[in-house]
Write a structure and sequence with these properties.
Helix content is 42%, strand content 13%. It contains 16 helices and 13 strands. α10 crosses α11. The mean pLDDT is 95.
Length: 419
């Protein structure tokens, strides 16, 4: 019998629900908690509220066999995993209210020997803050010197590092970085993750693990910023940036990423600001990368407006709203921001194609934009703004779209360059 017979997952979103379902599929009793009654009711019925390959069948299975149960209230367990959002405020500083609210929600049911793991992306020192808040509420859980019978509470940080569209596969196969407040905490958390992770489970300190997660996303953000800045320079000199990147990448030690309309998703667009907030005097390159990628959204909008104005009173097809290809995730999406600005300027002339959603976000609908399919958008519009490289868009025949004036921010319609 496992030493972790019951696991509680707090937060059943893009990370929490797949994690809960995966652990439950190993025969471990899992109690999922979310403050949203709608989400809880959906999962309790064996359904899902997010789009992720293979997740629907897995959730249906573990709910039907009783290994995954859900509610809006925390219950006693052996392991508590916190997987709630950590957004940033208007001043680009991390907001940790949801993390601390999750900690508050479990304090009353914690017991000696429990393992508490934070998976939410967090600034350096957050795991230490969690420990202080727990011990303030539950001083009975503090291990005192000389207490030979004590079963200390273990607290650790283990950030997720998965790709939407491949979450279940990567939860199993990716290496994990596990940072405990003490080496003993790290070892206990490591034993737990080895129950369902095939990748290496490497231990370190909590602060180092927090920095690792931020570093991973800041690295990607800075590299995307290089590609985005390169695309702006190439545009000024009327050079095909896609050709430049493809040819430069033939160098054996060069691997330039692909530019786009900006950077989105909950991680890459936000996490670098956590580093900037922690060390504003030192994080100069990281800040510059964020500013370049944020500026690329405005530059894309301005290029789109110029193309639309050059084509008179044209109808506009905005292709894609998601932050990346073939997902329904709109969080921090630059495509959504560009489409919204265009809709606010041109109203019902804007037709939006996003094959992974059933209705427009409220702000877009209020601005007058219309959700349609790709065939209708191509047939009825004169201008196309390609914002996301969904597979469906790549397959659109050239003969059907030859009449369009195109701004392709993803480089998927190269066959129309120079026509």
């Amino acid at each position: 019998m496992t030493v972790f017979p019951k696991v509680s997952v707090i937060g059943l979103g893009y990370i929490g629900l797949p994690t809960a379902a995966l652990i439950a599929s190993r025969g471990i009793s899992v109690h999922g908690v979310d403050i949203s009654e709608r989400i809880v009711a959906t999962i309790a019925a064996g359904a899902i509220h997010i789009a992720e390959p293979d997740l629907d069948g897995l959730v249906q299975k573990v709910v039907s066999n009783g290994t995954l149960k859900v509610s809006t209230k925390a219950e006693p367990a052996n392991v508590f995993m916190i997987a709630v959002p950590t957004p940033m405020d208007a001043e680009k500083r991390p907001e940790l209210q949801m993390v601390f609210a999750a900690v508050e929600s479990i304090c009353g049911v914690l017991a000696p020997g429990n393992l508490v793991i934070l998976e939410s992306t967090s600034p350096i020192g957050t795991t230490e803050q969690i420990a202080r808040r727990i011990y303030e509420k539950r001083p009975d859980l503090v291990t005192r010197p000389g207490d030979k019978d004590a079963k200390p509470l273990a607290i650790a940080y283990c950030p997720e590092r998965v790709l939407p569209g491949r979450i279940l596969t990567e939860l199993i196969n990716n290496d994990r970085c596990i940072g405990g407040l003490t080496p003993a905490c790290s070892r206990q958390a490591q034993r737990f993750y080895k129950l369902f992770v095939r990748g290496a489970c490497v231990t370190t300190s909590a602060a180092a693990a927090e920095m690792v997660k931020l570093t991973e996303n800041a690295f990607r953000d800075v590299n995307i910023a290089f590609a985005n800045e390169l695309s702006l320079i190439c545009e000024r000199f009327a050079i095909n940036v896609w050709e430049v990147i493809d040819l430069a990448n033939r160098h054996p030690r060069v691997n330039i990423l692909r530019p786009g309309p900006g950077v989105g998703g909950h991680c890459i667009a936000i996490d670098p600001w956590f580093i900037v907030d922690s060390a504003p005097d030192l994080a100069r390159l990281i800040r510059a990368g964020r500013e370049v990628n944020d500026h690329k959204m405005e530059a894309t909008f301005e290029r789109a407006v110029a193309l639309i104005e050059d084509n008179g009173f044209a109808s506009i097809a905005c292709l894609g709203l998601a932050f990346k290809a073939n997902v329904d995730d709109l969080r921090e999406s630059p495509a959504l921001e560009v489409a919204l600005k265009l809709a606010e300027k041109y109203g019902s002339r804007v037709k939006v194609v996003e094959p992974n959603i059933d209705e427009l976000p409220p702000a877009l609908a209020r601005a007058g934009a219309v959700l349609t399919d790709l065939d209708d958008a191509i047939r009825s519009c004169e201008v196309a703004i390609v914002l996301v490289d969904h597979d469906q868009f790549k397959l659109a025949p050239l003969a059907d779209r030859r009449h369009l004036a195109v701004l392709d921010t993803r480089g998927i319609w190269q066959d129309m360059l120079g026509r």
